[in-house]
Structure formats: C-alpha cells, structure tokens
Design the sequence.
C-alpha cells in the first residue's frame, strides 16, 4: 500500500504543482489586468479580460522592443534606474533569470556539455557557459586557453563556476536539457530514450 501511494504521489505531484503554478500566474495576471482596467475607468470586466489585456500589452511591448528608438529609450531609462544599488541588485537578478528562462534554445545549444577529470581520476559533468572570460581574469591566469565551466549542484538552482583549460575538457554530444536534468536530479531522473 505504501509503495502504491508513493507511486501515485511521484506521478501526480509534478503535474499538480505545475498546473497550480500556471493557474496562480494566470490568476495573478488577470487580477493585474483588472486593476489596470479599473484604473482607466472600465471597471471590472468578465473573468479573463485582465489576462487578455496583460497578454496584449506584453505582445505590444515585444513588437515595440524590436524598434531601435524604443530600445534606445529603454536602455537610457534602465541606465538611470540602475544608479540605485539595491534596485540594481534585484533588477539584474530578475533580468538574468528571465533571460535564462526566456531563451529560445539557441543559447542552450551553445552551452556545450563537457567532462573534466579530477585529480583522483573521477569526472565532473559541466557546461561551457561562454567562449571567453573577462580580460582581468584572463590576464591573472597562466597563459593558456581558459573557459568558464558551470558545475550544477543537484536539486539546487545554484552551481559552481570553474575556470578550466580547454585542453582538459572532454566534449560530450549530450543535449543541454538532458544533461541539466541529469545533474539537477543527481542522476536519479531517467535519461530520455533516443
């Protein structure tokens, strides 16, 4: 009975939490849209109208940010706002997280999965996150070609960034998403069949 209950929880919990999270975000956006509608004097419309308003506003913003003058103005505004240290810390963290979540897959494809050997003969799985490192760091390191490698921690969002010689890396033909799933679950999550 205990195994059956556990099997039910393990299968339904991810679905239930995902549905709950998506529903909560949808309701929050709908409430935000209703607040905007009330602010402009249209009062409380039908359920879902606030969500549609926010969706349309985001669509218009996406189109607007493809126009150079709008991008230039936004960058100027962003630069002025980022003069406040506390706000800068919060804003840049959220912006980095949003850009990571909103990547269309092209950035994920550039994150090459690699292995590198430790001194005790074991290997660590990591991801090359960039083809270059900051000049100040590069100047401080011995002459060689160094790249940043992210070592993701299991069940955490955090990871460790190591600088590794490119010659010490073993490049692996393993999609970023599959390797990340393996690392985040410490190998417990089964690999997708090919």
Sequence:
């Amino acid at each position: 009975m205990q195994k059956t209950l556990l099997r039910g929880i393990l299968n339904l919990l991810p679905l239930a939490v995902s549905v709950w999270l998506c529903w909560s975000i949808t309701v929050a956006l709908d409430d935000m849209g209703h607040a905007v509608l009330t602010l402009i004097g249209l009062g409380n419309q039908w359920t879902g109208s606030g969500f549609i308003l926010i969706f349309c506003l985001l669509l218009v913003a996406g189109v607007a940010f493809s126009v150079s003058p709008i991008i230039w103005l936004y960058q100027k505004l962003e630069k002025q706002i980022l003069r406040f240290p506390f706000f800068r810390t919060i804003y840049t963290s959220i912006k980095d997280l949003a850009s990571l979540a909103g990547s269309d897959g092209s950035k994920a494809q550039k994150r090459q999965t690699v292995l590198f050997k430790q001194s005790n003969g074991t290997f660590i799985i990591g991801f090359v996150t960039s083809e270059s490192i900051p000049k100040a760091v590069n100047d401080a390191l011995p002459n060689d070609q160094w790249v940043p490698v992210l070592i993701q921690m299991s069940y955490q969002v955090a990871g460790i960034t190591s600088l590794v010689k490119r010659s010490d890396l073993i490049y692996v033909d393993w999609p970023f998403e599959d390797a990340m799933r393996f690392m985040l679950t410490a190998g417990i999550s089964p690999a997708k069949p090919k």
Remarks:
- Strands lie at 112-117, 123-128, 146-152, 159-165, 169-171.
- The radius of gyration is 23 Å.
- The longest strand covers residues 146-152.
- The mean pLDDT is 79.
